[in-house]
Amino acid sequence: MLDAWNQAKNSIHQKMPDHNFRLWIKPLEYVARQDREIILACPTGFFKKWVTRHYLGLIEAELERLCGKTFRIRLELSSGHNGNACDTPEEEQLVLPHVENRQRMLSPFHLDFTFDQFVVGMCNDFAYNAALSLACAENDHHNPVFLLSKTGMGKSHLSQAVGNHILKKNSAIRVCYITAEEFTNAMIHALRHDSIEKFKDKYRRQCDVLLLEDVQFLSGKTKTQAELAYTLDALFDAKKKLIFTSNYLPRDIPKMDEKLTSRLSAGIISNIESPDCETRVRILRKKAFLKQIDIPEVVIEYLASELTQNVRQLESGLIGVAAKASLLNLPIDTKLAGSVVENVVRRSQEITIERIQKLVCKYYELSIKELISRSRKRNILQPRQIAMYLARRYTGQSLQAIGRSFNRYHATTLHAIGTVERFIRENGPVQKQVEFLSKKVESGNI
To answer: What's the average model confidence in pLDDT over 151-178?
Structure first.
């Protein structure tokens, strides 16, 4: 019977996407046959519920086709599981080596950002394959990859998946994952502390894989651009692996050195589009499984049809549905989902640059005229930068549109956003102010 089960698994594999098969069918293990009942082992109680609801009929039908008679499938938890475990059927995730035993990475990887957990669709399959090919390449013939997309589409997931994959195969490989702003700050620190040669050596000769995020924040940073161009020349010549991410094409980033633009554009440029409905459904299924949310298929399809902006909006809707059902002790159905979707969509539609400007002016006791003036006084400059940051985060407007609303060029908007993000990481007073204003925006109290 074990042979029949293995044949059934192979046949099922041909009838469903590979990542779905690896997630839900491959982990099932044959245990025993009792008359007309086949017992299969699965990892967790949630896994058991999901497979029963979505795949049990397919499994039973395939076994009937192969064996010529019907069997009932009974799912049991694998030995060592009590039904409350949070294990996933994915391969065990990477545990990174201790940083003191290898080159320190300036930004940690998210261990869930792997190729297995990335949902592939028509909107992102080229980017996925380009990143996976770079990660798996064993020879010297590999092109750099430039991932292009709006915020919330998954380019950071793919970039970090490359790092996770490479380190899992060989933890001795020197992988450096860093944002453009962190690279800039590290270079400034090196210049101030007379250690620029050490900085150059680290990125030019002690780096096997460079993952550089958010290259649009290099706009206007002339010295950083020059140093990065030399660094990329050295890495190109040494045939190292390179991956870049950005919201904009290199040629569309203002105040960018032509030499650096040429380096960034030298490889594969792959755009990640907004997910189509089918991909949104699969994203919701995957996130529901990872978060152990038992949600009916009809609700998943409803959320996918209504929340169309990006992956983050999908996740917000899913979490909102689960939270509301839990707090009110209600079943998860389309009626409940509709109330959550209404709030998510209305919130995104109601938040405008103008309303954010009014909120910031009220909090900092400024007039709109002062906020958008040319003044660079600290009590005006910082609120203006925070308002630009909030506008970028919550409105989805382009940098050009935000800049026009503040009488600024979009390069200035980029600088303002980068400044506020640095303040947030420093966890000082600006971080608290942004957190307060963000809650106001998210609650609709603006």
So the answer is: 89
